[in-house]
Amino acid sequence: MKVQMLGTGSAFAKKYYNTNALFYTDSHTIMLDCGITAPLSLHQLGKSFNDIDALLISHIHADHIGGMEEFALQMSFIFRRKPVLYVMDSLVDQLWNSSLKGGLKQEMFNTLDDYFEVRLLSEDVSAKLMPGFHVRPIRTSHIPNKSSYSFLINETFFYSADMKFDPALLEALVQEGCTTIFHDCQFASPGMVHTTLDELMSLPSYVQERIMLMHYDDNKVDYEGQTGFMKFVEQHRLYSF
Ligand SMILES: Nc1ccn([C@@H]2O[C@@H]3COP(=O)(O)O[C@H]3[C@H]2O)c(=O)n1
Ligand SMILES: [Zn+2]
Ligand SMILES: [Zn+2]
Fold first, then answer.
1. Dihedral-angle region of residue 227 (phi above 0 means left; psi in -120 to 50 means alpha; beta otherwise)
2. Whose CA is nearest to atom 12 of ligand 1?
3. Which residue ranges does the record assign to the Metallo-beta-lactamase domain (predicted)?
4. Spatial distance between the Cα atoms of 11 and 33, rounded to a whole number of angstroms
5. Which of 1, 71, 159, 210 lies at 20 to 30 Å from 168 by C-alpha?
């Protein structure tokens, strides 16, 4: 399995694009989140939306779903194929009614199912999304009273998406055999809705060693060499796990 980030920046970063990922199995490509910058990043990789076999969504912020309107429109009117959309049962109604409907509702296209082959996921229920790609969605804390999910992939790779610091979860994941953690990292404190670098630096070395930092601000250069045992994930680089 390989992972390649379409972007590694925070919601407001301009240099590093939105934190969205492509996962490559032997036979399929799965996109995890499709933010505002995802269409341009895909294009820069020489890919199109037609190369994506399934999209998985963590939560409803524009840096994670802002590219979905273009995804849906290109697939319907250019490629004429319905892509698979994996979405949490707690997010599916809001995704359409609060985020996508304004741009996508038109004659003959009245629901999310008219654009995507929608498959629902439930919290803490492991699911096989594609051959060789299993995911356990874990509800994590991000914005008060809004659902947001992190994902444990193939029982060894944890992708935080956006979450507040949860050291007990990270330590439990490592105890259970998780070898790689792609974690959001905000440089300035307090974190409020994200995990800060200072919080991650408080983790024991055996946890830090597994962490790669993403969802960072444009001033990343100021923090290079100051991230303990943790390294930065880089846009478009291929990582195997
Ligand atoms: N209570 C909140 C809510 C949102 N935000 C900022 O808005 C961004 C939305 O995308 P994100 O990646 O979740 O990061 C959020 C914060 O920067 C924030 O700083 N505080
Ligand atoms: Zn975000
Ligand atoms: Zn968010």
1. alpha
2. 11
3. 18-215
4. 13
5. 1
Q: What is the pLDDT of residues 167-225, one digit of tens each?
A: 999 999 999 999 999 999 999 999 999 999 999 999 999 999 999 999 999 999 999 99
The rounded Å distance from CA 12 to ligand 3 centre is 11
Domain spans in the chain, listed from the N-terminal domain onward:
2-233
98, 131 contact by CB (below 8 A): no
Mean pLDDT, consecutive 10-residue stretches, the chain (241 aa), reads 98 98 98 98 98 98 98 98 98 98 97 98 98 98 97 98 98 98 98 97 98 98 98 98 94
Rounded to the nearest angstrom, the distance between the alpha carbon of 209 and the centre of ligand 2 is 23
Ligand 1 nearest-atom number relative to CA 142: 13
- On whether the pTM is more than 0.90, the answer is yes
Residue 36's CB: how many other CB atoms inside 10 A? 20
Residue nearest to atom 8 of ligand 1 (CA): 11
